[in-house]
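Subject: Re: docking follow-up (zinc ion)

Dear J.,

Thanks for your patience while I sorted out the input files. As discussed at Tuesday's group meeting, I've set up the holo structure prediction with zinc ion included as the bound ligand rather than trying to dock it afterwards. The sequence and the ligand SMILES I used are pasted below, so you can double-check that they match what you have on your end before we go further.
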Amino acid sequence: MKIKYVPLVLIIICIFGTFNLHNTLLFFPSPPVESAPVNQWFAEDANVVVSLTFDAEGDEIQLNRLISFLDSENINATFMLKGETCEKYPALVKRIAHKFDLGSHTYTHPLLTEISKEAQLDEIQRSKDIIYRTTGKYPSSFRAPYCDGHKSYNKYTFENLLLSEIYIDSSIGTVTTAPISPPKDLKQFFPEYPYPYVIQMDGRMIIEIPWIYPSDSIAYDNSNTLDQILYIWKLAFEYCYEQKGVYVLLLHPGRTGKYIERITLLKTLIEFMRQYDGVYFSSISTIASRFSDWKNINKE
Ligand SMILES: [Zn+2]
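The structure tokens for the complex came back this morning:
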């Protein structure tokens, strides 16, 4: 299908330009290089890989609504579970684990940059433990709380992920559209780069699967109409499609699952995407595993 070119104004944040001395403790991941379009490592005929990811706070009604919706669409989404959510809704979390890909979203949802390295490690490991105790599965990926609006992680976060044997992260943003631009302090953001990449830490690697700006929280917080939100997400999708990239939506049961109209919006967006050729829906762990297989093959 021929894509009509839609002007997409990318907000360029000069990452290195905003780097100043008092930020030396901040962690800047490797510049995003050595990645490739999805047809080189996901599937030969892939033009874009779409991933729906839910940072799983939210109540039972919202979570159930999403599970039913994803079932009806036959989509394998990724749920980034909070330890507290496992405590509160163990049966529901078990159901989620049975069908979907799992990540950790910490235990109590702190802003990681405001707690110590040790406290971060405790948050990640305790969430990993309770997810395992509740579901029999370990989370394979991680997403930092508040990563859609703050400097929400630092060097320690990535060191702690390695210590916790979590090798996939999805906390860093990418593509944005002019109607909603990211806050200035949302650094570590590669606005033109919708591809997975590798973050090197002491010779070890974490696969970063970046998400598309804005998240549902940001979109709905900015008092946009549903039509405007749909328009913004479509623009970002068209950009990712042209780039043969990944399109990772950062969603929340408490936002997208809150009202039926928002589920309907997501359904409309999915229908829109399905009209294009070579659109794959996939989970974060599947994307990461195909990407890392490809990286290894290329290294040999
Ligand atoms: Zn969150």
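A couple of observations from a first look. The first strand starts at residue 48 and ends at 56. Residues 1-26 have pLDDT under 50 and may be disordered.

Let me know if you'd like me to rerun anything.

Best regards,
T.
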